[in-house]
Amino acid sequence: MSETETVEMIHEDALPGHESALEPKPDWEPRYPGSGRLKDKVAIVTGADSGIGRAVAALFAREGADVAILYLCEHDDAAKTAEIVRGEGREALTIAGDLGEKDFCERAVAQVIEKFGRLDVLVNNAGEQHPDKDITDITEQQLKRTFQTNIFSMFFLVQAAMPHLKPGASIVNCTSITMYQGSKELLDYSSTKGAITAFTRSLSENLIEKGIRVNAVAPGPIWTPLNPMGGASPEKLEKFGENTPMGRPGQPNEVAPSFLFLACEDASYMSGQVLHPNGGTVVNG
């Protein structure tokens, strides 16, 4: 499938969606002054044009990192995230393309190395979801596309990044509460999140002797463009996040600190683990 065909398919249901068009706007701003926890590091954050990815990029920049913003096609949102990173006094690089394609992942990592000369943190955050009430409604094309975006991309990016990751580097993947609870309308999406958790634990075992830590974050319902712009049914959106113990959806800047903790030396004795910013829902994990 060509990049043009991929973009057209995804936009059939408005995904990935413009944060600039979302009301109310998600909260991405870091909540506290930086303390240099990623000083002079270089990070790749996928899906950093909006939502959780934007909040992670903003927080990483505040903590001293230069950030490569990988995204599909929402150029206005990506430009805004780059502006945020530069506003924190750090460098930003925007790279658009389909993370489900191995060639793009290789080219993107090469661009990062060409510009910054190093890579210290890889955040695999990008994902897509499509609600379906019945398993027979999931087309073969959608099934392949969801796995391609959500889990194949992580394999491709890690493979491309490995020659550049040194001891002390970290990889943080975005899984989901749906991996632990299931989701009756997100059968393919929740399945990819299960794969991501298994990938995180297995990759940690694989890379720990190289001094590279691998962890994950499993958000609950977070207010980002993903759900209101095609990723959730209207019925689910009406009460989005109300079933959490806190009774509300989370904001991206309530999730980003989990990514920061796992990316920096604060988590130097953690690998193969999953953090759960989910509004108080207790899961096994």
Helices and strands in order:
Elements: H1 3-10, E1 42-46, H2 51-62, E2 66-71, H3 75-87, E3 92-96, H4 102-116, E4 121-124, H5 140-161, E5 170-174, H6 178-181, H7 187-207, E6 213-217, H8 227-231, H9 234-238, H10 252-263, E7 274-275
Parallel strand pairs: 1-2, 1-4, 2-3, 4-5, 5-6, 6-7
Helix pairs in contact: 2-3, 2-10, 4-5, 5-7
Descriptive keywords:
41% helix; single chain; globular; 285 residues
Walk me through what this model shows.
By secondary structure, the protein is of the alpha/beta class. The protein is 41% helix and 11% strand. The chain has ten helices and seven strands. The protein has helices at 3-10, 51-62, 75-87, 102-116, 140-161, 178-181, 187-207, 227-231, 234-238, 252-263, and strands at residues 42-46, 66-71, 92-96, 121-124, 170-174, 213-217, 274-275. A seven-stranded parallel beta sheet has the order 3-2-1-4-5-6-7, sandwiched between helices. Helix 3 (75-87) links the parallel strand 2 (66-71) and strand 3. Helix 2 runs parallel beside helix 3. The protein is globular. The N and C termini lie far apart (36 Å). Residues 1-12 have low confidence and may be disordered.
